Amino acid sequence: MKSDRVAELILVLDILFAVDIMIIFCTAYYDDEVKLIDDRKVISKNYLRGWFFIDLFAIIPFEFLLNSTAEFNHIVRVTRVGRLYKLIKLTKLLRILRIMKEKNKFLKYLNDFLRLGLGFERLFFFFLIFMLLCHYSTCLWVTIAGLQNDKGFDGTWMEDLHQ
């Protein structure tokens, strides 16, 4: 059941990445000379010369293709496509790194636009880190409850919580 949920999550992420590709084809950008480029033809050429193929490989649902048939799995094993699959999974990581780089540009622009002070920025990031730590500690408590017995959450505080 967990694998079905993970597969659904991966599918949703692939769909979001596909929507992102469509948005990028319609999004203006600033070139090196800080000139706004809003011509769709130029935007498309720039994207096709840059990250498009990496983004495209990142959204192909290889999880579903590799699990489709036993005959296909035999072909995959013979041709060692598994290694290629692992490399393609790294493209998603490249996308995330690119998004993080763009996030820094966006945060700088937002900071300049809102003229936020350094104190507010530190408070915001402290709050963000605090919420992340709360999330991780909750995940740890749920994991501990699941490890208490072999039947999952039966007889633990998690069972009491969900009644």
From TrEMBL:
Superkingdom classification of source: Eukaryota
Segments crossing the lipid bilayer: 9-30, 50-70, 123-144
Gene3D superfamilies to which the protein is assigned, alphabetical: 1.10.287.70
Domain Ion transport: start-end pairs: 10-136
Membrane topology (UniProt): Multi-pass membrane protein
Alphabetical UniProt keywords: Membrane, Transmembrane, Transmembrane helix
Localization (cell): Membrane
Database matches in Pfam families: Ion_trans
Keyword DNA repair carried by entry: no
Record's GO cellular component terms: membrane
Example GO molecular function: monoatomic ion channel activity
Cross-referenced InterPro entries: Ion_trans_dom (IPR005821)
PANTHER family: CHROMOSOME UNDETERMINED SCAFFOLD_10, WHOLE GENOME SHOTGUN SEQUENCE, ION_TRANS DOMAIN-CONTAINING PROTEIN
Name of the protein this chain belongs to: Ion transport domain-containing protein
Organism: Strombidium inclinatum
